[in-house]
């Protein structure tokens, strides 16, 4: 089977984990891939741990990332690195919350989009496609704030991980 | 119609199909993972209503179908237990409009009290069952379910599971979705009045319908074969099929879309072409037992995989016959009652008074966890009252006097009212105390409306069930209402007083859910503005 890219988001309820994974799934769909995204709603939302899986490629079967097979683990809350770590493959890439410089964001609510910016530095998806997906998901008055957050995350990850 | 590909979760896909199928009314009761279906149907412009419980939702749906309209009835797996009574006889009747019942099962119990496998219901109630494995199939099978329902005048169950409901996958809508006939009354007493004289021939008709549907499923049902190695053939359905195809890409696969009545002969032909046959199914060995009963040699999964969801790694273990203990996933942060939640105040009092608490289903079930540790039983919707009464009848008096039943507003409307009738009719010697934690919303499932909020599914003003008036009318000896903010400090003294009396008591504790409160204020303001505009538009006398 052709290569599927596996991404897992982890965080706590209320941090925008599910919104971030929605935007990623939309962006890769816009880029022409098959995509599946999976998460659990309900009891887990009462302030507990939240995680969301996104898989994309030519054809995706199961919607859940198998343990030990995530290519990228994007974690929005430091305490959630440890419980999510087993999902990452041995040479997979962890994008921790401190990739975003403290005080770098005008509004902390755009932190999830900043983390998407960090992830975007690794993925071969055109920047314009990312921005289309962000704008489709968020209200127009929030676009500029989140465009800036996305750019900050993208730049920070490039510096942190020595990407060109 | 938008026939571009869209990224939808399974619930949204069912809602879109319901719209395209011309469903006249969607009914249901909120329950994870089914809740979003009716919410999405409403947002798409469909007409959707929350019912007090799943039984009533299905009964309304049956009425819609008898009137010639298409009805979609949604619930979680345990909801079908409540709706089982109408379901088991609705299959005997002839429905004119299509009637599709969605059962959203929760293997692994992401947010449920059990992981029952509702495939058993299809066979038990003699209702055809379709099982999609992604959002595209959820869309396609919803349309197909209406076609089958109208062709054979029979209710059809669409069985989803958590991962189908809550996974987003790409969907292309069909431009040619058929539109149903106009509603109208057609009298057909023998097909709709199930007295024994009519039900006996109706049961024969039902079995004849199922035989026809089985033949159709054999010949042209939604079952697909994915060719592969002749060494191993895998039969699967629903989300398990996706895991199986990923875990065993080299094997031959047969994915069964209509799992009741099963396409047994098609599976027999598939089995004949492979050296060994494995059934990969989540939950109970339902297909495996059916295949074996039909004389098809098949293997199933080891017993340890009956429990919880299947995943690709678990299916790999099943293929390898691996029964060694599975790695335990690290525990994340568990859910807890929100900061500022009024349930916290109540459970602190119950804990400090050392009450024996018969609990119920909702956010407040979290009162069982520290720092409250103030819940002693939780079984099913509404059970707090009956279980509390049973404890009262049986425990020594000094323990019985500590028993309190705790139930939320939506759960009370769902299944608590008959419990109150029991309390009035068969009161324990020590009396009993029922607390309704009224937070003005169905909080756990995501803040849906219910008959006690005074707002419809889409938050418009409507009639409202008054708990205090209801309690008084039912003959409960003490009926008290307290606002937790402002009057909450009276609760310990009030409870002490009521627990000491050999009398029946209903205490309504009010405080809107902290998450829902801003929305409730918004809805109230919108309703007030609408009323003012209507008044201003009235002609002066």
From TrEMBL, chain A:
InterPro entries: IorB_Oxidoreductase (IPR052198), Pyrv/ketoisovalerate_OxRed_cat (IPR019752), Pyrv_flavodox_OxRed_cen (IPR002869). Residues 13-108 form the Pyruvate/ketoisovalerate oxidoreductase catalytic domain. Pfam families: POR. Keywords: Oxidoreductase, Pyruvate. Signal peptide: none annotated. One of its GO terms (molecular function) is oxidoreductase activity, acting on the aldehyde or oxo group of donors. This is Pyruvate ferredoxin oxidoreductase.
Automatic annotation (TrEMBL), chain B:
Residues 17-171 form the Pyruvate flavodoxin/ferredoxin oxidoreductase pyrimidine binding domain. It catalyses: indole-3-pyruvate + 2 oxidized [2Fe-2S]-[ferredoxin] + CoA = (indol-3-yl)acetyl-CoA + 2 reduced [2Fe-2S]-[ferredoxin] + CO2 + H(+). GO terms for biological process: small molecule metabolic process. Keywords: 4Fe-4S, Electron transport, Iron, Iron-sulfur, Metal-binding, Oxidoreductase, Transport. InterPro entries: HACL1-like, IorA, Pyrv_Fd/Flavodoxin_OxRdtase_N, THDP-binding, TPP_enzyme_TPP-bd, Transketo_C/PFOR_II. Binds 2 [4Fe-4S] clusters. In this family the first cluster has a non-standard and varying [4Fe-4S] binding motif CX(2)CX(2)CX(4-5)CP. The keyword Electron transport applies. Its EC number is 1.2.7.8. SUPFAM superfamilies: Thiamin diphosphate-binding fold (THDP-binding), TK C-terminal domain-like. Pfam families: POR_N (PF01855), TPP_enzyme_C (PF02775). Its cofactor is [4Fe-4S] cluster. Residues 360-507 form the Thiamine pyrophosphate enzyme TPP-binding domain. It comes from the Bacteria. GO terms for molecular function: 4 iron, 4 sulfur cluster binding; indolepyruvate ferredoxin oxidoreductase activity; metal ion binding; thiamine pyrophosphate binding. PANTHER family: 2-HYDROXYACYL-COA LYASE, INDOLEPYRUVATE OXIDOREDUCTASE SUBUNIT IORA. Heterodimer of the IorA and IorB subunits. Catalyzes the ferredoxin-dependent oxidative decarboxylation of arylpyruvates. This is Indolepyruvate oxidoreductase subunit IorA. It comes from Parasulfuritortus cantonensis. The lineage of its organism: Bacteria, Pseudomonadati, Pseudomonadota, Betaproteobacteria, Nitrosomonadales.
């Amino acid at each position: 089977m052709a290569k599927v890219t596996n991404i897992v988001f982890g965080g706590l309820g209320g941090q925008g984990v599910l919104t971030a994974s929605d935007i990623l799934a939309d962006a890769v769909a816009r880029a022409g891939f098959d995509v599946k995204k999976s998460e659990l709603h309900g009891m887990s939302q009462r302030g507990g741990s939240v995680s969301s899986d996104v898989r994309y490629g030519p054809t995706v079967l199961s919607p859940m990332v198998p343990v030990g097979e995530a290519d990228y683990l994007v974690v929005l809350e430091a305490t959630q690195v440890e419980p999510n770590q087993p999902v990452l493959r041995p040479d997979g890439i962890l994008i921790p919350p401190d990739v975003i410089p403290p005080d770098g964001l005008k509004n902390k609510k755009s932190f999830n989009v900043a983390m998407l910016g960090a992830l975007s530095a690794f993925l071969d998806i055109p920047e314009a496609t990312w921005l289309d997906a962000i704008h489709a998901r968020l209200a127009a008055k929030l676009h500029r704030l989140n465009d800036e957050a996305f750019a900050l995350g993208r730049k920070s990850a490039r510096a942190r991980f020595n990407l060109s | 119609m938008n026939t571009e590909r869209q990224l939808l979760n399974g619930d949204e896909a069912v809602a879109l199909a319901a719209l395209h199928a011309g469903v006249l009314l969607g009914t249901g009761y909120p329950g994870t993972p089914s809740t979003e279906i009716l919410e999405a149907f409403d947002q798409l412009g469909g007409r959707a209503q929350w019912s007090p419980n799943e039984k009533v939702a299905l009964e309304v749906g049956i009425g819609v179908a008898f009137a010639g309209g298409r009805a979609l009835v949604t619930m979680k797996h345990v909801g079908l237990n409540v709706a089982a009574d109408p379901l088991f006889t609705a299959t005997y009747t002839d429905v004119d409009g299509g009637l599709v019942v969605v059962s959203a099962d929760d293997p692994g119990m992401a947010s449920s009290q059990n992981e029952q496998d509702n495939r058993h219901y299809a066979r038990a109630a003699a209702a055809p069952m379709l099982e999609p494995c992604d959002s595209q199939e959820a869309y396609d099978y919803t349309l197909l379910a209406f076609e089958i329902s109208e062709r054979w005048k029979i209710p059809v169950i669409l069985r989803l599971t958590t991962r189908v409901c809550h996974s987003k996958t790409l969907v292309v809508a069909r431009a040619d979705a058929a539109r149903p006939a106009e509603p109208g009354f057609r009298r057909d007493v023998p097909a709709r009045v199930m007295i024994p004289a009519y039900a006996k021939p109706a049961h024969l008709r039902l079995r004849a319908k199922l035989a026809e549907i089985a033949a159709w499923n054999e010949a042209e049902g939604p079952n697909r074969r994915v060719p592969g190695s002749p060494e191993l053939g895998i039969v699967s359905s629903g989300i398990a099929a996706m895991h199986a195809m990923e875990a065993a890409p080299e094997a031959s696969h047969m994915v069964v879309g209509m799992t009741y009545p099963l396409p047994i002969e098609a599976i027999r032909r598939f089995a004949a072409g492979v050296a060994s046959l494995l059934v990969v199914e989540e939950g109970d060995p339902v297909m495996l037992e059916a295949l074996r009963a039909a004389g098809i040699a098949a293997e199933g999964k080891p017993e340890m995989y009956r429990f919880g969801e299947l995943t690709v790694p678990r299916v790999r273990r099943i293929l390898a016959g691996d029964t060694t203990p599975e790695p335990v996933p690290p525990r994340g942060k568990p859910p807890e009652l929100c900061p500022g939640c009024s349930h916290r105040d109540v459970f602190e009092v119950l804990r400090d008074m050392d009450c024996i608490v018969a609990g119920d289903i909702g956010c407040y079930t979290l009162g069982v966890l520290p720092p409250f540790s103030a819940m002693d039983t939780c079984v099913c919707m509404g059970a707090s009252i009956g279980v509390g009464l049973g404890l009262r009848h049986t425990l020594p008096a000094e323990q019985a006097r500590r028993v309190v039943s705790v139930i939320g507003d939506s759960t009370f409307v769902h299944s608590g009212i008959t419990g109150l009738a029991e309390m009035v009719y068969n009161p324990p010697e020590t009396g009993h105390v029922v607390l309704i934690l009224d937070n003005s919303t169905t909080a756990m499932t995501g803040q849906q409306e219910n008959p006690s909020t005074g707002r419809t599914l889409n938050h418009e003003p409507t009639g409202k069930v008054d708990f205090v008036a209801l309690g008084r009318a039912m003959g409960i000896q003490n009926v008290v209402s307290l606002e937790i903010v402002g009057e909450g400090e009276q609760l310990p003294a009030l409870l002490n007083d009521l627990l000491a009396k050999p009398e029946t008591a209903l205490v309504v504790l009010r405080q809107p859910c902290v998450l829902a409160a801003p929305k409730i204020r918004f809805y109230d303001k919108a309703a007030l503005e609408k009323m003012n505009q209507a008044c201003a538009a009235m002609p002066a006398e």
